[in-house]
Design brief:
heterodimer, A: 158 residues, alpha+beta, 5-stranded mixed beta sheet, two-stranded antiparallel ribbon, 23% strand, globular, B: 80% helix, flat
């Protein structure tokens, strides 16, 4: 399969149908909120107990994990690859470079659900939580995204 | 990825120290930065009204970027 043939919607639908608690994070979440940023990858933060069903869903789109679930749990993250590259965070909590722990179980209930089609929804973190996820890595591009999201948030509040 | 784009990617993906992070995040948003960002959001959300259209736009944009990178390398 070529990268251009990847059925993104089918991927999201498979995740939904699997019942995996999965949050789309990273730049694609910014895109959904209306920020036109360039990205190559997909980034998800999933519940640690959902690795197997998430992988099964991804397998329907020919994406394969780079490690076994036990190893992914120990490491806190892994990758799904083939036609696309999907970074999967499975840690129970993460610490922003300048802050306190952010737990998946804390941000999951505050998630925002976005309807892509009448049959397909996906979940992203609340805007405040998405900003926190962008502070996990101290990379300039993430910090630029924090600034974009902060402006978006201020506009949403006006 | 070309040598140049690899260098740019490495620069954008480098990890900053805490002081640099704070400086980045605490720098005030200027009126110009705010206006440009809002204009960009308004253009994007008017042009691509649904989440699905926005995702499709980004896939096309990335495919164009990758094609250009390949052509530049040749």
């Amino acid at each position: 399969m070529q990268a251009g043939e990847f059925d993104e919607l089918a991927f999201f639908r498979a995740i939904q149908d699997a019942g995996a608690r999965a949050l789309l994070i990273g730049r694609r979440a910014l895109v959904l909120l209306g920020l036109p940023v360039l990205t190559a990858d997909y980034d998800f933060w999933i519940a640690i107990e959902n690795i197997a069903i998430f992988n099964d869903a991804a397998a329907k789109c020919d994406l394969q994990p780079t490690m076994e679930p036990d190893a992914a749990r120990r490491r806190g993250r892994y990758v799904l690859e083939h036609a696309e590259h999907v970074d999967v965070l499975v840690a129970r909590s993460m610490t922003p470079v300048d802050g306190i722990d952010v737990a998946f179980e804390t941000i999951w209930p505050r998630r925002r659900t976005i309807a892509l089609t009448p049959e397909t929804e996906l979940h992203i973190p609340h805007l405040d939580d998405l900003i926190l996820t962008k502070r996990f890595a101290a990379r300039p591009k993430d910090l630029e995204d924090v600034r974009l999201l902060t402006i978006l948030k201020s506009e949403s509040n006006t | 990825m070309t040598g140049r784009s690899a260098n740019i990617a490495a620069f954008a993906n480098r990890e900053l120290g805490l002081d640099d992070v704070r400086a980045y995040l605490e720098a005030p948003v200027s009126d110009d930065e705010r206006e440009q960002t809002i204009a960009l959001i308004q253009w994007f959300t008017r042009r691509y009204r649904t989440p699905l259209e926005r995702l499709a736009y980004v896939r096309r944009a990335y495919a164009r970027w990758r094609l250009n990178a390949l052509l530049t390398r040749r």
